[in-house]
Design brief:
This protein folds into two domains: about 1-55, Nuclear Transport Factor 2, Chain: A (Roll); about 55-175, Nuclear Transport Factor 2, Chain: A (Roll). About 15% of the residues lie in helices and about 45% in strands. The chain contains two helices and eight strands, in the order βββαβαββββ. A hairpin with an 8-residue loop joins strand 2 and strand 3 (about 45-50).
């Protein structure tokens, strides 16, 4: 407890490489939830000790494949009702994880626990610049209340700039 400021947590965690399940890195984090401020995201300071596998080659391959599509990519229900993600949609699912992480960070409190349940819908939007744009409807399971909440999230992605959430709209709020 920090008087008149908030609650600070010190965490030690191990991150698993989603592309190489045998590779992990240790990290530490400090998370500060401000008192009485539900409108602001917690402050997070993160230190990663080590490196995860480079995705540069896979990123370029995915980028070129999506840029070469004649029609915009559209998909629903990732994973399906059996938990399966088609290999061609795995990068779309990974981008959804990034987007859900952003939503979680921006909208969490000390009393929430979000988990990406499913990509309900995703649609690629053609752009005049070099970014790829995906408009998602993500279903986030709020583990404390047991609600499954839809979030509309727009993700811009480029292999050299990474993922950026440009728009985020949650249930019943102007987020």
């Amino acid at each position: 407890d920090i008087d008149d400021v908030g609650h600070k947590y010190y965490l030690e965690l191990e991150l698993e490489d989603v592309l190489d399940k045998d590779r992990t890195v240790k990290c530490t984090a400090e998370v500060l939830y401000h008192l009485g401020s539900k409108a602001s995201a917690p402050d997070v300071q993160l230190t990663v000790q080590g490196e995860l596998r480079s995705t540069e080659e896979a990123d370029k391959e995915f980028y070129n494949r999506i840029r070469s599509l004649e029609k915009e990519l559209v998909a629903e229900n990732i994973p399906d009702s059996h938990g399966n993600v088609p290999p061609a949609l795995e990068p779309i699912h990974l981008l959804a994880w990034v987007a859900s992480g952003y939503v979680t960070w921006q909208n969490s409190t000390e009393n929430t626990k979000f988990h990406l349940a499913q990509v309900k819908h995703v649609k690629q939007v053609k752009r005049s610049d070099e970014d790829l744009q995906f408009d998602y409807v993500l279903l986030l399971h709020e583990m404390v209340s047991q609600e499954v909440l839809p979030w509309e999230v727009t993700v811009l992605w480029h292999p050299q700039r990474g993922a950026r959430v440009s728009q985020c709209q949650g249930p019943g709020a102007g987020n």
